[in-house]
Amino acid sequence: MKELAQAMVDLPFVLTVELEPPKGCDLSRVYNYAKKLQGKVQAVNITDSPMANMRMSPIAVACLVRREANLDAVFHLTCRDRNVIGLQAELLGAHALGVRSILVLSGDPPSIGDHPKAKGIFEVDSVGLVKIAKGLNEGRDYTGNALRGPSNFNIGVAANPLADDIDKEMDKLMQKIEAGAHFIQTQPVYDVEVLADFKEKMKPYDLPIIAGVLPIKSRKMCRHIKKNIPGIHIPDWLSERMEKEGRAGGVRTAAELIQDLQQVVKGAHIMPVGSASLVDEVLNYGLN
Fold it and tell me: SS3 string of the chain?
């Protein structure tokens, strides 16, 4: 198994796929999904209770996927559920289990999830969490105390090249980079030129960029995103394609986008929204 950090050095282009942990203890679907991705992608991303809906620990799932599917895993870690002691404990535990790639996120507020009365912690934000991870890599904890052995995390951060307030977004990204980020993973973007412009802005920092690819699986999903999801821009041509072709149009768009991205960024991250079959369709597009 090749670690994602090394794959980004050795390969001209990498592929990762998002995977949600189960709400419960049955991991059979997770294992089946991950094993189908063997030889097709370099890593899976394990989400951390996305949309504030409770799921199994992403660190546990990442460790088990690495063991059972021989596939590297990037675990998401949010600031929502843990104070700085808990965040550091989770990171050290992940490192001990061999899980070294992390995507740092602030996290969605509990009010939107399945435990709306839960209290969010947010003792630090994503910038603060990057600093914590970098500190552990340098052999010290959050307060500067020496560790008995440093960590070696590959620290990823999120960015949205199409944020409504792009100046604010870029300022936050600069803070994450200065705090110690190693790679950038973007929100879904359907315009390669936007990503090319974003890469140009990032050129002085020389960080790998993995572009988010969200395959749209239905006309209904396309309309919903366009109307209700801020931060994801659905161009008119894609709306028209979806209305004409439905799921087939969404698969074609994602597959073509991944091909085009290979000339622009370091990798693509497929976000299947819980549909493993959709990933197969995208990765196998044009082969049948």
Answer: CCCHHHHHHHCCCEEEEEECCCCCCCCHHHHHHHHHCCCCCCEEEECCCHHHCCCCCHHHHHHHHHHHHCCEEEEEEECCCCCHHHHHHHHHHHHHCCCCEEEEECCCCHHHCCCCCCCCCCCCCHHHHHHHHHHHHCCECCCCCECCCCCCCEEEEEECCCCCCHHHHHHHHHHHHHHCCCEEEEEECCCHHHHHHHHHHHHHHCCCEEEEECCCCCHHHHHHHHHHCCCCCCCHHHHHHHHHHCHHHHHHHHHHHHHHHCCCCCEEEECCCCCHHHHHHHHCCCCC
Span 235-247, pLDDT tens digits: 999 999 999 999 9
At 263, list the tokens.
């000339």
pTM for this model (two decimals): 0.95
Domain positions in the chain are 4-215+265-275
Q: How many residues does the chain have?
A: 288
What is the predicted pLDDT for the residue at 287?
55
Among candidates 172, 212, 178, which has minimal Cα distance to 192?
212
Q: Is the pLDDT of residue 217 over 80?
A: yes
CATH architecture assigned to 4-215+265-275: Alpha-Beta Barrel (3.20)
Cα 197 to Cα 211: distance, rounded to the nearest angstrom: 13
pLDDT band, very low/low/confident/very high, at 1 (cuts 50, 70, 90):
confident
Q: How many CB atoms lie within 10 A of CB 148?
A: 5
What are the tokens at 100?
A: 């070294």
Q: How many angstroms separate the CA atoms of 40 and 37, rounded?
A: 5
Residue 286, pLDDT score:
63
Q: Model confidence over 89-114: pLDDT tens digits? A: 999 999 999 999 999 999 999 999 99
